[in-house]
Structure formats: C-alpha cells, structure tokens
Write a structure and sequence with these properties.
This protein is α/β, with parallel strands linked by helices. It folds into 2 domains: 82-329, 3-Layer(aba) Sandwich (Aspartate Aminotransferase, domain 2), CATH 3.40.640; 335-428, Aspartate Aminotransferase, domain 1 (Alpha-Beta Complex). The protein contains 17 helices and 13 strands. The chain has helices at residues 6-22, 43-47, 69-84, 86-109, 122-132, 149-162, 180-190, 213-220, 242-245, 271-274, 286-295, 305-309, 317-321, 323-333, 335-354, 383-392, 417-428, and strands spanning 57-58, 116-119, 140-144, 165-169, 195-201, 226-230, 249-253, 265-269, 359-361, 374-378, 395-396, 398-399, 407-409. It has a 7-stranded mixed sheet, with helices on both faces. A 4-stranded antiparallel sheet has the order 9-10-13-12, with helices on one face. A two-stranded parallel sheet has the order 1-11. Strand 6, helix 9 and strand 7 form a beta-alpha-beta unit. The termini are far apart. The protein binds pyridoxal-5'-phosphate. Residues 121-123, 148, 150, 201, 205, 230, 232-233, 253, 265 line the site of pyridoxal-5'-phosphate.
C-alpha cells in the first residue's frame, strides 16, 4: 500500500468535508466532488473543513468536537506512521511533534511553554489541579453553585482526602439578568481570611453565563489566594488569554470549541500558581527521566512546572500531536474572527428564541456576559422530550446535566445561519 502523505490526506479529507457541507449550503455555490482551496476568510469554506452529516443542524459540537480536515489529516498521518513502526515513528517524531504542539499552545495562550501542562480533558486537568494544590486542613476553597460536576467532584475528593473546607456560593439567582457587579460582589463577599483558592468556571454550562474573570481577578488582587478557572467553554470561543483574564490557572479540554483532537486538554498556570502545586502523576519529560536514570531521583531534575505536571506514560500520540493543527486552523481564521462568529450566531439564536412566546431565554442577552452557549426553557415541556423532538427534526441540542436542567445549544464555526434558523423553526414546532 502506498504511504499516505500529508498532502493526499488533506485533499481527501477536505473533499469528504465538502460533500457534507455542500448539501446544506443555501447559496448552492459549492458542489460535491470539487475541493475548493481552504479560504479562512470564508465561513462556508471553514464549514467545509468538517465532515458532519449535512442533513442535520449540529448545534452541540461543543460537547465533543468533530475534527476539522487538518486535524483528521494529522491524526491519520501519525496513526499510519505509528502502525507501521511504533517505536521508530515515535522516536523520529516525538520531539518535533511535541515542540509543535507546545509552540502552537504558547502562541494561542500568549505565554511560555513552561507553564503549560498537557492533559486528556478538562476533567483530568481539574482533577490534577484540585488534587495537587498545596493546602492545609485549615485552608478553604470558595467555589460556586454553578460549576460543572468535574469541578465539584474534584473538590469533594480533595476535601474528603484531607479535610480542606469547600464553600460553594451562589453568584446569581436569575442568570438572564445577572450583572458584573452582582457576580463580583457575591464572590468577593464569600472570600475570607482562610480562603486560599477560588474555583470558578468561565462560561457556565448550566446557564450560558460568562463570568467576568478579569473583574473577579482585579477584585481579588492582593489577597493571598489562587484564582482557578475551568475555561473550557471560553477556550476557542472567546478571544482572551490567561494574562488578559488575570487568573492563576486556566484549565480546558481541546475537544470542544477549539475543535481539537478528542482526548486532549491543557492546564495553564502562572508562576505563582505552579509554585503552590505538587504533581501526582509521573511526568515523562526527558529532564525528569534523565535525572532518574542518572541520579535515581527525578526530583533532581530541572523540569519546568507545566511539563512536570503533564501526566506521563504512552498516550494516543496521534491525537495529542494533532492538537497543533487545531490551533493552526484557529489562528489561520483569526481568534478574534472566531469569537465574533460565535457571538454573531449565538446572538441570532438568542434573539430568535426570545421572539417565541413560550420560550424563556436563560442565558444573558449581553454578549459580555455570555459566549456561545445558549440555554432556554420551552414552556412546561420536559427538556429531554424537547431534545428528542428536536433530534427527530434533525436539530442536535442537549439537556444541561444539572439539577435545574435547560435546553441548550452552542453554535460555533461548524455552523451556519441556516442551522440556527433550522433550530428556531424546530423550537417553534415544539409549542
Ligand atoms: C464546564 C465544563 N467543564 C468540563 C466539562 C468536561 O469537559 P472534558 O470532556 O474536557 O473533561 C464540561 C462538559 O463536558 C463542562 O460543561
């Protein structure tokens, strides 16, 4: 069998993506079988990078991302190489591939590589972080009632293990009318002299509320605590860097809004943050391994904190290494344009939903207090029933996995205005 080249794979996968999207393009300019060159300025061309079923409006790609063509191509290239010669390919490519991923992540985050740990998911990152922060029995973590299971459970496991106090605070009662002052006020009021960690979520997957992380960081400045953020629904959807947010830790998966390989993620930490962290999984960083081989103790190594916090072991490298290609695609489109597109589609959806009498939009209309997630209630209709009926109408939405459950959409770069309008029509038909 001829060896797969990167170029032939890119062409093949882009063509596969085009067949899918072409069928749902309103203007009909693109036809199946032709492979237009990728034009990052053209949203139809961006959509053509995805191989989604064209007969369905996929408005939940943020849950578990479809891979765009360059990511599929990179995965296939690495997989073919690893299957052909696992050790040879690994040794020949590991250093370059990891440097490429680190470089791409550094550019995206606007930081150095030393502060970035790579993981498999947001959940793994949160578990490592909240399990590894140096806290004593008398220390307290302030969190909120709005975070996802992964934050709450990581903190519960920590509290059960060594008695750290975890105090959840409610930041708003009505998400639709939440304000920056209210959120910052409630959070700062909850912080006391024993608080060492504030554990929050950038964009709540329970309501779509986007926390004003910068304002929170400014309000907490000068206090001896770490601001830790589950950033997964802002990462790749909102144009902001850790420095701009002002947090100490930003944890995310790569497989949601960034459309990175499934099974990827990262933890970015500030110098101050990492100085209060102890890893729990051995790193496979060359410096740690070399120190262990030569001195018998990896602790003698000069491994920087991010690589030191990166769980070692052999991984699904074909996915890990293709994370660089997701960042590159994102960069080629422009992070500001991606964020603008997400905002534009979410605004269209919110406005359309707000115009349906029986629908209550839960997510704030203000784009500064929201991102791409759009949550709503449809009269008294049970959320799982709404999701099922929408699926039958070929619209993929989800039910928020929280005690107060809402119907949730998340339009992103794989979507068109047509998809949003299809969702609005389908919601109208629910009532
Ligand atoms: C706020 C939030 N954090 C974390 C996760 C889990 O992400 P991951 O699959 O990257 O662990 C989810 C949902 O999947 C979520 O909504």
């Amino acid at each position: 069998m001829p060896q797969l080249t990167r170029r032939s794979l890119l062409t093949a996968t882009a063509a596969a993506g085009l067949v899918g999207v072409a069928a749902c393009e309103a203007d009909g300019q693109q036809t199946a079988g032709r492979t237009p060159p990728f034009d990052p300025r053209d949203w139809a061309s961006v959509r053509a990078q995805f191989a989604l079923d064209p007969t369905v409006a996929h408005l939940s790609t943020y849950v578990f991302a479809p891979h765009p063509a360059p990511v599929r191509a990179a995965i296939e290239q690495h997989r073919a190489g690893l299957d052909r010669d696992p050790i040879g390919y690994l040794h020949a490519h590991e250093a370059d591939a990891e440097a490429r991923v680190a470089g791409a992540a550094m550019r995206y985050l606007g930081t150095g590589a030393d502060g970035i740990a790579f993981t498999d998911s947001t959940t793994l990152g949160l578990g490592l972080l909240y399990g590894g922060l140096r806290l004593s029995r008398n220390d307290e973590v302030v969190t909120t009632t709005h975070d996802f299971y992964a934050t709450h459970e990581a903190l519960r496991l920590r509290a059960d293990r060594d008695g750290v106090t975890v105090r959840p605070v409610e930041l708003y009662t009505d998400p639709a009318t939440a304000s920056v002052d209210q959120i910052v006020g409630k959070l700062t009021a909850a912080v006391g002299p024993r608080t060492r960690v504030v554990a929050v979520t950038w964009v709540h997957s329970s309501t779509g509320v986007r926390l004003p992380i910068r304002a929170i960081a400014d309000a907490l400045a000068g206090k001896n605590l770490l601001l830790c953020v589950d950033g997964v629904h802002g990462f790749g959807a909102v144009d902001a860097t850790p420095a701009g947010l002002g947090c100490d830790f930003l944890v995310s998966g790569g497989h949601k809004w960034l459309h990175g390989p499934r099974g990827t993620g990262l933890v970015w930490g500030s110098e101050r943050g990492w100085s209060r962290f102890t890893p729990s999984v051995p790193s496979f960083d060359g410096r740690s391994l070399a120190a262990w081989v030569t001195t018998g103790r990896a602790a003698a190594a000069t491994t920087p904190p991010g690589p030191l916090a990166t769980p070692g072991g052999y991984h699904s490298f074909e996915h890990r290494w293709a994370l660089a290609d997701a960042f590159h695609l994102h960069d080629s489109i422009g992070r500001g344009r991606v964020a603008g597109r997400v905002r534009e589609l979410a605004t269209r959806l919110k406005e359309g939903l707000a115009g349906i009498k029986e629908v209550t939009v839960v997510t704030p209309r203000d784009p500064e207090l929201s991102a791409g997630l759009v949550c709503c209630a449809v009269g008294d209709l049970r959320v799982d029933e709404a999701v099922g009926r929408l699926a039958a109408a070929k619209v993929v939405a989800s039910a928020t996995p929280y005690r107060d459950s809402y119907l949730r959409f998340g339009p992103g770069i794989a979507n068109s205005e047509e998809h949003v309008d299809a969702a609005l029509r389908a919601v109208r038909d629910l009532v």
